[in-house]
Structures are given as structure tokens and as C-alpha cells.
Design brief:
Strand content: over 45%
Distance between the termini: 62 Å
Number of helices: 2
Helix content: under 10%
Radius of gyration: 27 Å
Length: 317
Amino acid sequence: MNKISRYTFLIGAVMISSFSACLKDTSQPDFSKNSPIIELPIGSSNANGSGNTIDAAFTQDEVPSDYFVNVNYAAPDANPQDVTVTLSVDGTAVDKYNKANDKNYTLLPAAGYTLASNKVVIPAGQRKVQFPIKINTQNLDPTVTYALPITITDGGGFTVSGNFGTLITVIKLKNKWDGVYTVTGTMNDTVNPLLTGSYPRTFQLITQGPYTVAIYDPGNNAFAHAILNNGGNSTYGSFSPIFTIDPATNMITSTVNYHGQTAPNGRSAKLDPTGENKFVMSANGKVPVSLKTKYILVQDGTDRTFFDESWTFKSAR
């Protein structure tokens, strides 16, 4: 091989090595060690060693939600035999995580989940199986952020991962009306005619309870209602309606102000009974399609601003 050919070969080898490093899938288990380990690989490990976490959101429903935790056999070669892995709900892991990360997550209560078994088998020749869990959302408070800590207590004869032996699932609940909407409509301020509606607008409805949602304006990053002031962007301060919904009919039965019915600026909210005030739901009744509603901003006991809005569901939040 001549000098030029040797240089070309070396440069090509370096480029191939560099591209291989860039294309490495870091989400895959690390098989660099010869000794097999059993792990819960989904999530991100905290640098302070307080836990491996993942976020999950569930819509409240009478039917429990299916949830799965991956259990992994990490080794250069596939397992030659069935591996029975034992897992448990480890409340001490939540305490440790809260303390290390300045959080206040609540341990998911026993009524909030169901385990068919505390064991799962990784069949011979497979690397990963799913450990099934039922989340009993109807037994949970949507205003609380829960944590479900699953820990491997027995690796079936193999070493349990030090960093990925526990997975903490941070659980947030939503009711079925929660979501992102496109809002159009009209607004009539009877006190200041320079204040007009800011439509169309993207608003969110954020769960406040099993049957309540509050208007959140992501454009202003606040529980507020965007308006125009003489054509310029503005908001009504300390005003965001909370809708209470009848789950049997999807009718809005009442409206109050998120900031209190005696907000510092004297603003409260109430429903306008002349409106439809009803969600149209999908065929299975689980996803909103649209909402038509009328409500009123009350200022110091007087009906001041009248809203007449049409909401179209865009996506889950």
C-alpha cells in the first residue's frame, strides 16, 4: 500500500468511527459489561442517585387504566433460560426522591393501583417484558401529584441494576374535558367599550377536580382570559372561569372564578343561562369534540362583561 493509500485508509477509518459514535442509540441498554443485570430501563436517572423517573398522565375513568413497566435483561447475549423477576411498591423510594429533589409527591395509595402479581418472567431468548399495572383513577384526587415506585427485589439469580433498579412513575390525573382548544366568539364589556375579545385564541382547560376545569391561557402563561385593549394585547387580571360539569350530560352546571369569588379586584364569574353550556363528546363519550358556552364577569356585584364562545378540541394537554 503506498503512502497516499495509507492516509486515505486512515482518514476513512476515523470518519466511519466518528459516524458510528454519532449514530449510537443511547436509549438502548448498556451491554458493555459481560455480567447480566436486571433493570427497569425507562426513565432518566438522577445524578444525585435518588431515583429513575418517568412521567405519566391518566384520564379519570370508571375503568382502570392499563400501565406497563418494562423489565429488562441487559447482557451481551440473550438469556438462556426463563428469568423470574420479583418486584414491589417501595414507598421509601418516594421519600428519598422527594428529599433529594425538593418535591412533595404523594405515594400512590393501595386503592390507586392493582398488581395481578409481584412477579414477571423474562422468557428464554428475550431481553424485555412488560410488568402490568392497573391504575384505579377513580380512587384518586386529580389535584394531587402521585408517585408509584416500583423496585426490583429479586433479579432471579442475576444482579439488579444499581441505577435502574427502581422506577418512580410520577402520575398526574386529568378528567375527560381537560385539553387544548381553539376558541372563537364575542365579548361585550359594558363598562369599557375599548376592551374587546381576543379571538381566535388557543386556551387550555386544566383539571381542578373530577368534574371541574379552569381556563388557562398559555399565551400569557396564566390562569387568565386574554382580551384586547384598544386593539392591543391584554388580559382581565385575576379572572379565569372554573367550569363544573355534570358527567352524565356533559352540561356546565356552574362557573366560579379560579382566583376566588371575592378576588382582590372584586371580580367573580357566573354562568349565563341563555347559553348552551354543553360539551359535545366523541362517540365513545371519552374525548371532547366541542363546547359552546356563555358566562359573565361580575365586577363588584354587577354583571360587567358577557362572553359567548365556541371551543373546538385540538389535542390532549
